[in-house]
Task: inverse folding
């Protein structure tokens, strides 16, 4: 009886000791975890992923979980590119997004977000690392081109590429090319052709711009579109006329050594057949002191 | 003394396990194949060799710890040899600790052998022994010690298949728990955040033993982290072993 009691007491003491050990070790590793987290470790985020040859090869190693692998890498990429502390994070942007794109060709977001990140990178790097900025901008188009190639039924990729070319790169010929590509895809919004016409105007091809806007005006399905096209036609005509007037004014100045007091003097001296009027039949505003010619009203306030 | 005897027997038993040699064969194959993989890359070949070599040591080491560790206690119960053992003046805690140390010894020999092969391959390319790689290997071994304790914990109350799955789950959670930190940063203060914070503190963080990236890229490792990670591993291992002993003490084999 006494032996059983001693054995029970020993067992109880052992259990209590073990529970004490459990609590102490749990407290120890919890405190150490917090302490370890506070120590800043140098990391190369993405250092492992850039050595993956290509999504084409990787997809065979995902055992049928290609889409899941694409999701995981995409989530990782979002965190990676949201960390401004990584200075060189844009260096492997196309490679990283190419892996996601190859793993899941129809996963739409990575094409758009990847291109958006690339443009953001180009803007960030523009001042200090112009070469890297140019590469990031090229990456944006590469990613969107890949999106268009893998998803020929989606107009959004050439549309985004055109938008980037128009707004960020200011390469109007490139913008025109992408908007034209976008227009050919069924389901593309009707305003894309207006963006294309605007890109042609900005490119400086005034004749084609006039013809394009006139075509849009003639085919306009509603009054709003007609009005928009009319305003653009007003601007194109004003630009053409101003060019002719400024050329004649320069010629006049060269001959007489001064600017004319009014535009009619250009007709009197034979430099112009007639003084052009704006699309609304109104006179252009001429300043004889500076020689500037402008419309009486903004095209957008007619 | 009794722990040493059990550990010695466990070591001898593990040495006879064919799974051990099969895994060792694949690990060695992985390390040697890193040379072939390096041929496929453009640029830094030695980086590929180091990455694949260290990954092979880590991955196959974990598989050894799990596949052998999860069967250690269960086999004794299944073959009824546990009755003979526990009939002797042997505490159950001594039995668990002996089993644990026996497998740790086995893994030490295996890790050492794999490291020698790995260092030889690296030496063949760089013509120098890179001591820094041993730091990464040492902490891989520390991780294996913890995984061994986990395998023995599950083995003390479950079947080998389930124990393997649980231990593998522990390993995966341990390497993915950093995700909770990301979630914490984006969570608003409240009960949910406190719960995730508690989960983050309790769940294992095996990334504390992962120095592979730093070593391969030659990055400076803060000295404080060596001690911190080592003691963290030690505390977690003690915790798991205490839990295993507590559960094993309460088991009734009849």
Result:
């Amino acid at each position: 009886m006494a032996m059983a009691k001693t054995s029970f007491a020993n067992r109880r003491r052992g259990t209590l000791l073990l529970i004490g050990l459990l609590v102490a070790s749990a407290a120890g590793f919890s405190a150490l975890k917090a302490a370890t987290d506070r120590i800043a470790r140098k990391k190369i985020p993405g250092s492992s992923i850039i050595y993956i040859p290509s999504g084409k090869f990787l997809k065979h190693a995902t055992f049928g979980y290609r889409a899941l692998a694409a999701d995981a890498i995409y989530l990782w990429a979002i965190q990676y590119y949201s960390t401004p502390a990584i200075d060189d994070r844009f260096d492997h942007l196309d490679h990283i997004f190419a892996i996601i794109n190859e793993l899941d060709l129809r996963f739409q977001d990575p094409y758009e977000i990847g291109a958006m990140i690339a443009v953001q990178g180009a803007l960030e790097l523009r001042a200090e690392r112009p070469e890297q900025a140019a590469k990031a901008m090229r990456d944006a188009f590469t990613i969107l081109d890949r999106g268009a190639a893998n998803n020929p039924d989606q107009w959004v990729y050439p549309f985004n590429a055109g938008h980037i070319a128009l707004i960020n790169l200011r390469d109007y010929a490139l913008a025109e090319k992408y908007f034209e590509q976008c227009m050919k895809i069924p389901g593309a919004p009707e305003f894309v052709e207006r963006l294309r016409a605007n890109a042609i105007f900005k490119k400086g091809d005034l004749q084609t711009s006039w013809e394009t806007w006139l075509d849009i005006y003639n085919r306009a399905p509603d009054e709003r579109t007609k009005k928009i096209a009319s305003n653009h036609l007003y601007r194109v005509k004003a630009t053409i006329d101003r060019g002719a007037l400024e050329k004649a004014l320069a010629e006049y100045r060269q001959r007489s050594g001064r600017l004319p007091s009014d535009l009619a003097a250009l007709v009197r001296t034979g430099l112009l057949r007639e003084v052009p009027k704006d699309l609304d039949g109104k006179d252009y505003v001429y300043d004889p002191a500076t020689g500037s010619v402008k419309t009486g009203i903004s095209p957008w306030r007619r | 003394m009794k722990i040493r005897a059990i550990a010695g027997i466990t070591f001898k038993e593990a040495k006879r396990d064919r799974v051990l040699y099969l895994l060792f064969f694949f690990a060695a194959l992985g390390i040697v194949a890193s040379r072939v993989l390096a041929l496929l890359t453009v640029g830094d070949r030695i980086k590929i060799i180091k990455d694949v070599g260290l990954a092979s040591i880590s991955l196959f080491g974990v598989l050894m710890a799990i596949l052998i560790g999860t069967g250690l206690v269960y086999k004794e119960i299944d073959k009824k040899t546990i009755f003979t053992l526990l009939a002797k003046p042997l505490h159950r805690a001594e039995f668990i600790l002996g089993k644990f140390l026996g497998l740790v010894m086995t893994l030490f020999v295996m890790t050492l052998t794999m490291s020698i092969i790995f260092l030889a391959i690296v030496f063949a390319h760089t013509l120098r022994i890179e001591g820094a790689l041993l730091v990464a290997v040492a902490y891989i071994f520390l991780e294996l010690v913890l995984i061994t304790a986990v395998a023995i914990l599950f083995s003390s109350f479950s079947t080998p298949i389930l124990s393997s799955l649980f231990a593998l789950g522990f390993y995966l959670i341990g390497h993915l728990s950093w995700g909770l930190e990301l979630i914490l940063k984006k969570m608003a203060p409240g009960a949910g955040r406190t719960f995730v914070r508690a989960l983050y503190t309790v769940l294992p963080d095996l990334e504390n033993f992962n120095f592979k990236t730093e070593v391969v890229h030659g990055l400076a490792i803060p000295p404080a982290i060596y001690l911190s990670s080592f003691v963290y591993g030690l505390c977690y291992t003690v915790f798991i072993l205490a839990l295993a002993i507590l559960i094993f003490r309460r088991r009734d084999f009849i």
